[in-house]
Amino acid sequence: SVLFAVVSVVLVCFVQERGALGFERHYHVTDPFIRRLGLEAELQGHSGCVNCLEWNEKGDLLASGSDDQHTIVWDPLHHKKLLSMHTGHTANIFSVKFLPHSGDRILITGAADSKVHVHDLTVKETIHMFGDHTNRVKRIATAPMWPNTFWSAAEDGLIRQYDLRENSKRSEVLIDLTEYCGQLVEAKCLTVNPQDNNYLAVGASGPFVRLYDIRMIHNHRKSMKQSPSAGVHTFCDRQKPLPDGAAQYYVAGHLPVKLPDYNNRLRVLVATYVTFSPDGTELLVNMGGEQVYLFDLTYKQRPYTFLLPKKCHTSGEVQNGKTSTNGVSNGIHLHSNGFRLSEGRAHVSPQVELPPYLERIKQQANEAFACQLWTQAIQLYSKAVQKAPNNAMLYGNRAAAYMKRKWDGDHYDALRDCLKAISLNPCHLKAHFRLARCLFELKYVAEALECLDDFKGKFPEQAHSSACDALDRDINAALFSKSDNAEDKKGGGPIRLRATGRKDSISEDEIVLRERSYDYKFRYCGHCNTTTDIKEANFFGSNAQYIVSGSDDGSFFIWEKETTNLVRVLQGDESIVNCLQPHPSYCFLATSGIDPVVRLWNPRPESETLNGRVVVDMEGASQANQRRMNADPLEVMLLNMGYRITGLTSGGAGGSDDEDSSEGQVQCRPS
């Protein structure tokens, strides 16, 4: 009985410890904590911009790298500098990583001198120096399953792999992006899936993010070396650098077709940071020149685009972003020319009533819409959508708010909402019409005309409304203006996959991979990412409940992951916040940027008055950042120098062309 009692006590203690740990990890970042988040301390020791931060696995050490070519290891819990050493680099340090299973003894740095250095912190010495890259090294990645291995991404377009068990001070090329995208491509960031270390995500020039299977690449190379015919090729035999299935691309569906417009305005699209969620099922991307995007790696969806290859979709393929088993998806059809509504006239479908508390939220959103508070309306609709994901009216109303706000990507999100509303209610009149308008605004002019014609057939009483007539005139005017260069869009694959010319021509393999790309799940707006190419975005919380990102306005932004609503903005730097690294197990955040300091943030006591770093007008900050992203590069430079520029287009206050307030017409007002 004594033994039984001892065992029982041990089991109880074990369960309590496991329960306490689970409770701590589940609740270490909560909404009340986020709303109390404030500045705890500033760590001073660098003499230049702090470009990178890295926690050790236990969270009791924080490493930083700087323009001053030094790395510092801090005790962040006691705000102490434990170690400072010159890394041997001759230019700015952009990445710093602890090597797993090294007892926090080995630190790796990558810098603008094209070098990767390995340091032993116990003796403050650089023990390996790799000089294989030919351009700036932007990121280092490590993986627990590969304790002596790490990877680097550099602006020479190469992803290199290193093995410290080998005596050779060289590395091997794992991925050569120049073989796919030409000599001008630059690799900017990379990360390894924390749950399956065989998967490596890479961000580079352009809107596409790449996910690679490291094991497949290595197996392919081994089989090539062991093949008796290795090294013997004919003119018709081309050796693929990567095996089929080893790469999967992800892209925000509207960006490829927007790329020429961005290029004309000298607006660069580049992935500045990629990271996996703690459970490895999601990929977060900070897209320079655009917004922050989250991709679902489990429930993938094709882009909601209408310039797919000209072929009929067979059963089991993806229809309008959702997998269909019969070629039909809730009244939406894809045929050889892209989009088609279901046949026949529409009949009103009954709408499921919302619970009273959600009806109140919807009414609040409608009131915000009526006051032209588009972002507030979107956030309220999003809050309701999270609780009632099968309500067509909420999606239709949110689409109307997106179309009014007109921030970058809003028309594409509106298109997605329209399709969702129609899939839930095939007779949603406003969603049908808004869909045609979205297609037009997204430059899918021929598809917009086809969609409008289908709308008129489905809702003949609306065929001669002023809204329909106005959209019809816009579409036909656009078709007429494009007739001169129509030949540019014929042959050679979909327009959204074409290269932009110059020396960055893309290979046939790259075209296929881009065509097979998957779309995003969520989009986060408010920050600005145009000035630096190391700006991070991260998951915050053990369950990845929040998204955080730096910004060119010196602030960092925090969103709820599931609703995409902005919940907190804090001033983190006098100029630009680039780095945000959440603590592995506490509600504790380290940030850095242009200032030569590291800032630590945690929930402040309720008895403490929050300091002046809270940005109260989050909507105003977000609107200013949207203007900044769409400003002329010279104006942005002047803004960064402290000059105020007047006359920048707001890109969001004007009304939509599809609104008509007369009785019986198609209206843009929410339902």
Automatic annotation (TrEMBL):
- Tagged with keyword Aminoacyl-tRNA synthetase: no
Cite the repeat ranges for WD.
Answer: 43-75, 86-129, 540-569, 570-611
The leader peptide range reads 1-22
- Report the GO terms under cellular component: Cul4-RING E3 ubiquitin ligase complex; cytoplasm
GO BP of this protein: negative regulation of fatty acid biosynthetic process
Q: Which UniProt keywords apply?
A: Repeat, Signal, WD repeat
Pfam families, A to Z: WD40
Q: What PROSITE patterns is this protein classified in? A: WD_REPEATS_2, WD_REPEATS_REGION
User: Membrane-spanning regions, if any?
Assistant: none
**What domain of life does the UniProt record list for this protein's source?**
Eukaryota
- In residue numbers, the region (Disordered) covers 650-671
InterPro entries reported for this sequence: DCAF8, TPR-like_helical_dom_sf, TPR_rpt, WD40/YVTN_repeat-like_dom_sf, WD40_repeat_dom_sf, WD40_rpt
Task: Give the protein name, as stated in the record.
Answer: WDTC1 protein
